[in-house]
Amino acid sequence: MGTTASQLGKDLLSEYQELTFLTKQEILLAHKRFTELLSREDKALPNPRVPMESILTLPELKSNPFRKRICHVFSTSDMKDGSLTFEDFLDLLSAFSDSATLEIKSHYAFRIFDFDDDGTLDGGDLEKLVNCLTGETDDTRLTPEEMRQLINNILEESDIDKDGTVNLSEFQHVISRSPDFVSSFKIVL
Asked: H/E element holding 50?
Protein backbone atom coordinates (compact mmCIF):
# COMPACT_ATOMS: atom_id res chain seq x y z
CA MET A 1 0.00 0.00 0.00
CA GLY A 2 2.99 2.31 0.61
CA THR A 3 3.90 2.27 -3.07
CA THR A 4 0.37 3.25 -4.05
CA ALA A 5 0.44 6.25 -1.71
CA SER A 6 3.83 7.36 -2.96
CA GLN A 7 2.74 6.92 -6.60
CA LEU A 8 -0.10 9.37 -5.96
CA GLY A 9 1.93 11.80 -3.86
CA LYS A 10 0.78 13.41 -0.62
CA ASP A 11 -0.25 16.69 -2.25
CA LEU A 12 -2.34 14.99 -4.91
CA LEU A 13 -3.90 12.66 -2.33
CA SER A 14 -4.85 15.67 -0.19
CA GLU A 15 -6.29 17.45 -3.21
CA TYR A 16 -8.40 14.41 -4.12
CA GLN A 17 -9.68 14.25 -0.53
CA GLU A 18 -10.73 17.92 -0.69
CA LEU A 19 -12.41 17.56 -4.08
CA THR A 20 -14.32 14.33 -3.45
CA PHE A 21 -16.48 12.68 -0.82
CA LEU A 22 -13.85 9.95 -0.43
CA THR A 23 -11.48 9.20 2.43
CA LYS A 24 -7.73 8.76 1.99
CA GLN A 25 -8.15 4.97 2.26
CA GLU A 26 -10.93 4.95 -0.34
CA ILE A 27 -8.80 7.00 -2.75
CA LEU A 28 -5.82 4.68 -2.29
CA LEU A 29 -8.03 1.62 -2.87
CA ALA A 30 -9.55 3.28 -5.95
CA HIS A 31 -6.05 3.97 -7.29
CA LYS A 32 -5.04 0.35 -6.71
CA ARG A 33 -8.17 -1.00 -8.44
CA PHE A 34 -7.82 1.50 -11.34
CA THR A 35 -4.15 0.64 -11.84
CA GLU A 36 -4.99 -3.08 -11.92
CA LEU A 37 -7.24 -2.40 -14.93
CA LEU A 38 -4.44 -0.69 -16.92
CA SER A 39 -2.33 -2.54 -19.46
CA ARG A 40 1.44 -2.60 -18.89
CA GLU A 41 1.92 -0.01 -21.68
CA ASP A 42 -0.79 2.30 -20.31
CA LYS A 43 0.75 2.29 -16.82
CA ALA A 44 3.70 4.26 -18.26
CA LEU A 45 1.47 7.02 -19.65
CA PRO A 46 1.05 10.28 -17.66
CA ASN A 47 -2.79 10.29 -17.62
CA PRO A 48 -3.93 6.87 -18.83
CA ARG A 49 -7.52 5.91 -19.67
CA VAL A 50 -9.14 2.58 -18.90
CA PRO A 51 -11.48 1.43 -21.67
CA MET A 52 -15.15 1.10 -20.71
CA GLU A 53 -15.02 -2.66 -21.39
CA SER A 54 -12.38 -3.00 -18.64
CA ILE A 55 -14.28 -0.76 -16.19
CA LEU A 56 -17.36 -2.92 -16.74
CA THR A 57 -15.46 -5.98 -15.47
CA LEU A 58 -15.41 -4.52 -11.94
CA PRO A 59 -17.73 -6.65 -9.78
CA GLU A 60 -19.28 -3.46 -8.37
CA LEU A 61 -20.51 -2.45 -11.84
CA LYS A 62 -20.89 -5.79 -13.59
CA SER A 63 -24.51 -6.36 -12.55
CA ASN A 64 -25.64 -2.71 -12.58
CA PRO A 65 -28.22 -2.32 -15.38
CA PHE A 66 -26.97 1.26 -15.99
CA ARG A 67 -23.25 0.36 -16.10
CA LYS A 68 -22.63 1.67 -19.64
CA ARG A 69 -24.54 4.90 -18.99
CA ILE A 70 -22.56 5.39 -15.77
CA CYS A 71 -19.29 5.15 -17.73
CA HIS A 72 -20.56 7.54 -20.41
CA VAL A 73 -21.74 10.12 -17.88
CA PHE A 74 -18.45 10.16 -15.96
CA SER A 75 -16.12 9.87 -18.96
CA THR A 76 -14.32 13.04 -20.08
CA SER A 77 -13.13 11.35 -23.29
CA ASP A 78 -13.44 13.48 -26.41
CA MET A 79 -14.22 10.27 -28.28
CA LYS A 80 -17.35 9.68 -26.14
CA ASP A 81 -16.25 6.06 -25.68
CA GLY A 82 -16.96 5.73 -21.96
CA SER A 83 -13.27 5.31 -21.08
CA LEU A 84 -12.21 6.74 -17.72
CA THR A 85 -9.11 8.49 -16.39
CA PHE A 86 -8.28 8.02 -12.73
CA GLU A 87 -9.92 11.39 -11.97
CA ASP A 88 -13.07 10.34 -13.88
CA PHE A 89 -13.06 7.12 -11.81
CA LEU A 90 -12.74 9.13 -8.58
CA ASP A 91 -15.63 11.39 -9.65
CA LEU A 92 -17.76 8.29 -10.25
CA LEU A 93 -16.89 6.74 -6.89
CA SER A 94 -17.37 10.08 -5.11
CA ALA A 95 -20.88 10.59 -6.53
CA PHE A 96 -21.82 7.04 -5.53
CA SER A 97 -20.20 7.22 -2.07
CA ASP A 98 -22.14 7.16 1.20
CA SER A 99 -20.93 10.70 1.93
CA ALA A 100 -22.24 12.29 -1.28
CA THR A 101 -25.21 14.62 -0.82
CA LEU A 102 -28.73 14.02 -2.08
CA GLU A 103 -28.24 16.90 -4.53
CA ILE A 104 -25.08 15.35 -6.03
CA LYS A 105 -26.58 11.85 -6.20
CA SER A 106 -29.84 13.03 -7.78
CA HIS A 107 -27.95 15.19 -10.31
CA TYR A 108 -25.91 12.20 -11.51
CA ALA A 109 -28.89 9.83 -11.41
CA PHE A 110 -30.75 12.28 -13.65
CA ARG A 111 -27.82 12.44 -16.09
CA ILE A 112 -27.57 8.62 -16.14
CA PHE A 113 -31.31 8.29 -16.86
CA ASP A 114 -31.19 11.04 -19.56
CA PHE A 115 -30.20 8.58 -22.29
CA ASP A 116 -30.30 11.14 -25.11
CA ASP A 117 -28.42 13.78 -23.07
CA ASP A 118 -30.94 16.52 -23.85
CA GLY A 119 -31.43 17.71 -20.26
CA THR A 120 -34.90 16.20 -19.81
CA LEU A 121 -36.41 12.78 -19.22
CA ASP A 122 -38.93 12.22 -21.99
CA GLY A 123 -40.94 9.15 -22.96
CA GLY A 124 -37.96 7.61 -24.79
CA ASP A 125 -35.66 8.03 -21.78
CA LEU A 126 -38.29 6.63 -19.43
CA GLU A 127 -38.86 3.61 -21.68
CA LYS A 128 -35.11 2.86 -21.75
CA LEU A 129 -34.95 3.34 -17.97
CA VAL A 130 -37.80 0.88 -17.41
CA ASN A 131 -36.25 -1.63 -19.84
CA CYS A 132 -32.93 -1.42 -17.97
CA LEU A 133 -34.72 -2.14 -14.69
CA THR A 134 -36.98 -4.92 -15.93
CA GLY A 135 -34.57 -6.51 -18.38
CA GLU A 136 -35.16 -6.70 -22.09
CA THR A 137 -36.08 -10.36 -22.46
CA ASP A 138 -39.49 -11.45 -23.73
CA ASP A 139 -40.30 -12.76 -20.24
CA THR A 140 -39.63 -9.47 -18.46
CA ARG A 141 -40.36 -6.82 -21.10
CA LEU A 142 -43.56 -4.83 -20.61
CA THR A 143 -46.17 -4.90 -23.35
CA PRO A 144 -46.48 -1.62 -25.32
CA GLU A 145 -49.73 -0.89 -23.44
CA GLU A 146 -48.14 -1.54 -20.02
CA MET A 147 -45.17 0.64 -20.97
CA ARG A 148 -47.38 3.50 -22.15
CA GLN A 149 -49.47 3.31 -18.95
CA LEU A 150 -46.34 3.26 -16.75
CA ILE A 151 -44.77 6.24 -18.55
CA ASN A 152 -48.05 8.15 -18.28
CA ASN A 153 -48.14 7.39 -14.54
CA ILE A 154 -44.54 8.53 -14.08
CA LEU A 155 -45.19 11.77 -15.96
CA GLU A 156 -48.46 12.34 -14.09
CA GLU A 157 -46.58 12.05 -10.79
CA SER A 158 -43.37 13.86 -11.74
CA ASP A 159 -44.04 16.37 -14.54
CA ILE A 160 -45.03 19.37 -12.44
CA ASP A 161 -45.10 21.91 -15.31
CA LYS A 162 -47.01 19.45 -17.57
CA ASP A 163 -44.65 19.86 -20.57
CA GLY A 164 -44.46 16.10 -21.21
CA THR A 165 -40.95 15.72 -19.76
CA VAL A 166 -39.26 15.59 -16.37
CA ASN A 167 -36.55 18.21 -15.85
CA LEU A 168 -33.80 18.09 -13.22
CA SER A 169 -35.69 20.09 -10.58
CA GLU A 170 -38.83 17.96 -11.03
CA PHE A 171 -36.69 14.81 -10.76
CA GLN A 172 -34.98 16.13 -7.61
CA HIS A 173 -38.39 16.95 -6.13
CA VAL A 174 -39.54 13.34 -6.65
CA ILE A 175 -36.24 11.92 -5.34
CA SER A 176 -36.45 14.10 -2.21
CA ARG A 177 -39.60 12.16 -1.27
CA SER A 178 -37.85 8.80 -1.68
CA PRO A 179 -36.20 7.99 1.66
CA ASP A 180 -34.10 5.07 0.43
CA PHE A 181 -32.67 6.76 -2.69
CA VAL A 182 -29.47 8.02 -1.01
CA SER A 183 -28.68 4.66 0.57
CA SER A 184 -29.39 2.68 -2.63
CA PHE A 185 -27.51 5.00 -5.03
CA LYS A 186 -24.02 3.80 -4.11
CA ILE A 187 -21.03 1.86 -5.29
CA VAL A 188 -18.47 0.74 -2.70
CA LEU A 189 -15.15 -0.80 -3.73
From this structure: strand 49-50
- Is pLDDT above 80 for 7? no
Residue 3 banded pLDDT, cuts 50, 70, 90: very low
Three-state SS string over the chain comes to: CHHHHHHHCHHHHHHHHHHCCCCHHHHHHHHHHHHHHCCHHHHCCCCCEECHHHHCCCHHHHCCCCHHHHHHHHCCCCCCCCCEEHHHHHHHHHHCCCCCCHHHHHHHHHHHHCCCCCCCECHHHHHHHHHHHHCCCCCCCCCHHHHHHHHHHHHHHHCCCCCCCECHHHHHHHHHCCCCHHHHCCCCC
pTM of the model: 0.91
User: The dihedral of CA 17, 20, 24, 27: what is its sign?
Assistant: negative
- Tens-place pLDDT, residues 167-181: 999 999 999 999 899
pLDDT at 5 over 70: no
